[in-house]
Fold:
Amino acid sequence: MIRPLQSVALVGCALLFAGPLNAQQVMSSGDVAKGRLLFATCRTCHYAEPAMGHNNGPNLHRIFGKVVGEQADFEYYSDTFKAAQFVWTPEFMFVWLENPMAMFPDSTMMSRGVPDPQQRVDLIAFLKQASVRDPQVND
Amino acid sequence: MAKDSGDIGVTRRALLGGLTATAAAALVSGAAALPRSDVESWDSQADVLVVGSGAAGVAAAIEARQAGAQVLLIESLAQFGGSSAMSAGVIYAGGGTALQKALRVQDSVEDMFRFISLVGTVHPPLEKIQLYCEGSPEHFDWLVAQGVPYTDKLTLAKGLPMGDESLYYSGNEQAWPARELARPAPRGHVPGVAGMNGGRRLMQALLLQATTAGVELRHSVRADRLVTERDGSIAGVLVTVAGEQLAIGVRRGLVLASGGFIHNRDMLMQYAPQLFDCSVPWGNADDQGDGINMGIAVGAAALRMSEGFAIAPIYPPESVLSGIIVNASGQRFITEDAYHGVLGDAIAYHQQGRAWLITDRDSSYSFHQDNFLPVAEASTIGDLAAQLDFPKGALQQTVAYYNRHAANGEDPMFRKSPAYLRPLQGPPYTVWDLSATQAFFPAHTFGGLHTTVDGQVLDSFNKQISGLYAAGRNTSGIPTAPYIASGLSVGDCTFFGRRAGRAAASLEAKA
Structure:
């Protein structure tokens, strides 16, 4: 059996270099304002504010750089995520969100994903911004 | 908990093997029903087949099994629990439940009935509401017996408890005019777990109970089309499992419990355009309306398809309720302390999806939140109005009228609760966008199949479709628009899901 890390890396490379958006764009071209509304649907299960903690899904504050499936006090990862060893990056998030159930069929994330690549980029831009702002400042 | 979906209990075979050539050709079409004569043999059979593993389906399965039926429950996704498992798990219950009594809360069946029947929609489903209220204490006992954990703790705070309290005012009970129509009581019964994940705990308990009782649960099995006998009764269902199509026969009854259609954009545009515009489809990925469409395809009537839960969750914090909410004319149109489902309904359905919250210094959001964006800020109401597109002088007039009476502890127009009523004064003043398309504005659907109190699906002539039952958001039930309290939906799912399961199991088994 291929480890999730390897299979994901393969899919990721294929998409990132063949698709309309490259890795550089994923890192830099998102619209945070649009991403805010796109993330609203994700809030059914995920919060981006650290104070809110976990929901049905794990908290996503500063998600980039974290090892998949290892957040403290979150007990509802799928077996695949528990066994996985890769680290969340914007590039990997971009690939994963296209069709999460196709990539990891046993995922506990009940979402059909975000097929539009620009929307995924916007969503990632929002998550990046939400990870660095000061929660006390009402900007 | 359940076996892999690949083994469905019989020899696995492609549907095409079990169908006639005509039927196989017809499979390319949508959810239209298939005649029984086109199915040569069943790949599997059940006394009672339940489609969907949310609260309605699992409650139906438990009761059908305990009534002696052999029960198969199928779930289209890889995880059981449906939208119920993603919800807060609130059950709206009252009339003197064990928990209300333990906490010395005064309530009566009559007050609960008055609240549900008088505060929300016109022409509510009175027969269902009556049964629901009368049966509520017993239903809560049933939930406890299934292992759903509740704490003997009450909170008076507005909104879902973030601690482990299990009883709270979950709806519009204390807002005007509800408080004058029915004596308020806390009726939101929520599993005693911290945070907003009571639904997960509720479904863990119900799914465990179903498994223990002997219900066969299969995930990753998608129901596609119903199969009907020549007389129109339900013979079975065609399903897809791992890309292959199978036919499952039903000896007694089939219960559709596969949820609403908030994730089906085409159906929203067709049936519920106001919900189409709400920014956040709120529910499980497979709330696609499949069960509703399968029912319609065999002649079922569908009711209240435009209705749903449209939510403008401006609280917590309760301090913002001292602000005022205005429409595009710069006028108030509702009491600001209305339940967020009542507020959301008013905005989405009655104000063209547009509204603004206006706060002063003390009622402003004091922390960053992404739900509602500030669109104007000023040190006077006049300067604030100048930044927006309200009719000339309208906002100033609204605030002047409101402040004049609020200073005397009165709100002649909408009778906001005294706890939140005070003049709007003290800059900076801020305007927050509550519009359905721009704010955090979750929505899900309430429209669904027409059913009796026992879940029997009815056609357009009010005739029962033999062998077909439905429950939960696959039906039109207790929840209607405006949604007046959290817990009415999952409460309806479990209460009427149980009844549908028992009724389906009570049918005489076909040979």
Summary: Chain A has seven helices and no strands. Chain A has one domain: 4-132.
